[in-house]
Amino acid sequence: MHPAFSSVTHIQTTSTIDRTPKGDVTMVIGDFNAKVGHHKGGDGDTIGRHGLGKQNEAGERLVEFCEGNNMGIMNTWFEQPKRRLYTWTSPDGKHRNQIDYILINKRWKSTIRDVRTKPGADCGTDHELLVAILKMKLKKLRKKGDRINVYDCKGITPEYRVEIKNRFEILERDEMEEDEDANELWERTKRTILETAEKHIPKKKKGKTTPWLSKEAISIADERKDAKRVGDKDKVRSLNRAFQKKAREDKEKHLNDMCKVMEEEGKN
Questions:
Q1: What is the pLDDT of residues 17-31, one digit of tens each?
Q2: Residues 58-69: what's their mean pLDDT?
Q3: How many CB atoms lie within 10 A of CB 117?
Q4: Is residue 80's pLDDT more than 50?
Q5: Is there a contact between 98 and 54 (Cβ–Cβ < 8 Å)?
Q6: What are the φ/ψ torsions at residue 240 (nearest 5 degrees)?
Q7: Would you call 217 exposed, middle or buried from its count of C-beta atoms within 10 A (0-12, 13-18, 19+)?
Q8: Dihedral in degrees, nearest 10, Cα atoms 157, 159, 165, 170
Q9: Confidence check: pLDDT of 238 > 90
Q10: pLDDT at 42 over 50
Q11: Which string of DSSP letters, residue by residue, matches 113-128?
């Protein structure tokens, strides 16, 4: 960042942000040589209540830049002792200012949990080390068509075993005759497995189930779902009690079985 937040710097940085994908976390960090002060009525959610000093001309340009690019000045949002807010100290130690900032697009403001300086850090400069703590949880997005089929391996049929055996025999014979490339062989093998599985192995049903729940408890839960769908509140309440009772019994049985297994393993 330039020593002063000039109009040229404003245009260059805005141009860079405009080229950044909209969903990305955008942060601008550096020495702006600007004093933004603290929150005032017209500053909205750009400046917090813990900025230091009186806003100067460079500070006005920085606030204008943040508002134009929907960014927040994050080290003005956290209450700290003043020594943790000042980012610059003059060589003679007589003057201190807050002129270094961490900016982030407002959509991601909540990911920053704390911002403060580390006055004791030896950085070889008259600026203090400015540190932010971020915490975010990113969602993994699947591309369209990137659907993964999960097969129920308990449902493998004799027909599957026969067909897969025959098709692999053909693959093996073709490989010996054609001296096939390894990548091509892998693609044919994968295609053979998936095509045969699609014909003969059922897919696992979607939905989360607790592994220790008995079939009876799951049946009660399904019946309760049907009662909710038709709006039979009395039946829902009755089935809810029955489900909770059965679930407690199943869980207790599951824990007892686990204890027995551990006892047996401890004896061996």
A1: 888 887 788 999 999
A2: 91
A3: 21
A4: yes
A5: no
A6: -65, -45
A7: buried
A8: -140
A9: yes
A10: no
A11: EEEEEETT---SSSBP
Whether 34 and 56 have beta carbons less than 8 Å apart is answered as yes
Residue with tokens 């809810």: 240
Q: Is the pTM of this model over 0.90?
A: no
Return the bridge partners of 114, or none: 133
Q: Tell me the C-alpha distance between 123 and 78, whole Å.
A: 23
The CATH number that domain 7-134 falls under is: 3.60.10.10
Helix axes 57-68, 7-18, angle to 10 degrees: 20
Give the model's pLDDT for residue 4.
52
What phi, psi does 117 have (nearest 5°)?
-90, 160
Contacts of 13 (CB under 8 A, 6+ apart): 28, 65
The 3-state DSSP class for residue 29 equals strand
Which helix (H) or strand (E) element contains residue 96? strand 96-97
CA–chain centroid gap for 80, Å, is 28
Token pair, residue 27, equals 């942060």
Which residue ranges make up each domain of the chain?
7-134, 153-200, 215-263
Query: In the numeric block, which tokens belong to residue 224?
Result: 């309760």
Enter the tokens of residue 102.
């961490």
